[in-house]
Amino acid sequence: MTTTTTPKDSEPYASLTEAPPVARSSRLLFGVFHSCAALAALYCFLFAIKLLGDSLSLLFGCNTKAAFGFADNAIVGLMVGMVFTAVLQSSSTVTSITVALVGAGGLSVRQSVPITMGANIGTCLTSTIVAFAQVGDRAQFELALAAGTIHDFYNICTVLVLFPVEMLLHPLEHLAIAMTGGDAGTFFSSPIDAVIHPLYKQLLAVDKKTIEGVTAGTIACNDASFLKGGVFYAAYIDGALSSAAIGGICLGIGLVLLIGSLLVLVKTLQALLRGSAQAIIQRVLNWNGYLNIGIGALITFCVQSSSIVTSTLTPMAGLGVISLEQMYPLVIGANLGTTVTALLASLVTGSPDAVAVALTHFWFNVFGMLLFYPLPIMRTPIFAAARALGYASARFPLVAAYFLGGLFVLVPAIALGLTFLYNGSLGMVVAAIGLSVLLVVSGASGVYWYVRKDGRARWLAFLDEKSKLQDEKLARQTSDDV
Predict the structure, then answer these.
(1) What is the pLDDT of residues 226-236, one digit of tens each?
(2) Any bridge partners for residue 16, and if so which?
(3) Residue 111's closest CA among 65, 81, 73, 160?
(4) Is residue 3 assigned to a domain?
């Protein structure tokens, strides 16, 4: 039996011209209110992201230099770029520090390439965390997490292919150095930062040039002042609060603001992006995938942050406004767009090494696009991994937490530990070889169990059981409320 829905139920803006005057007014007020609420929530979200990055920069302070000092090893450089970008929530900050180190002679262009590769993976954390705002609705969370992690899997696959090639043949380095030349270019200021900065500087004003200088070794840490304004500046100058203490306070404020803004943003988007609005977005994104790459690059170029673009798209995907196939080219475009802004910023310095670092980042993303977009078969593993993680996490949310912990904590810890052992004494090298063999055997055994020993069926049965338990718990809560 087919059912019909009224425009009021399915499309709050439908047939607006045919509605009575009172209904037209109420719908107009509905749209204005939710639009203003969505913009306010988005502003708070962007404010929180900036605050988290700056507060963590203050927490690390002088210790940032020590972390980047280990980046002379390619694997360590990859992990440093990934972890620091994930922690600071800003690939541009990590890239700027890398450029400063290269310009000061602390790193070579070759050593900087793995750091920029790692930064590409680290910047994906934001969109994945944003998906948790929809964890209360299983269907939405499944779509949102798949959309949030497609950025992760795309960058992971690109690194898995290009990292070993770069370590053996150095094509990105050679191409970037060959193209390096010319003097100063054009500086581009983010309009998003221009909107946020007037209010933001009243709370916190971090001197990023000083932080970059301390990291590069051009400024002594004892002589450095990491703050240049804000409500904590007087206490900082008087010595009542250290930079780390201020960073901790702002970190707490940023986390609360981030969670609250995400919850409001999802609710308002859910009210706005349905009916005719959803249909219009679907039609626009269905035109051409390559056009969507250009749109993603252009938007990211304008806002100067791929995290903002992907984090805004993630809740829209969770609400069913855009599909995974439509989001994928936008994500690729966002990756390209953020490298263009970094390239323009590096041109201002007039330093060939700074431009070369930005060019390696640019070509890394260009080659990633050429590898994993034109041929549909190359997209298959990325889509499959994102959908599988979304499916499992919707039924057992801890899977998503394990994924984030594994990617940003366990993998870097293992990689850094093995690198340390391989560079140690003979006994440490033997231990490293033993651990490496153990990891390979464990991984191979897990794959064999999953593929050949009915592991997949058992895993799906486990997820179904978790799903039933969630449904029963929700039913009991609903019954108790009634």
Answers:
(1) 788 888 888 88
(2) none
(3) 73
(4) no
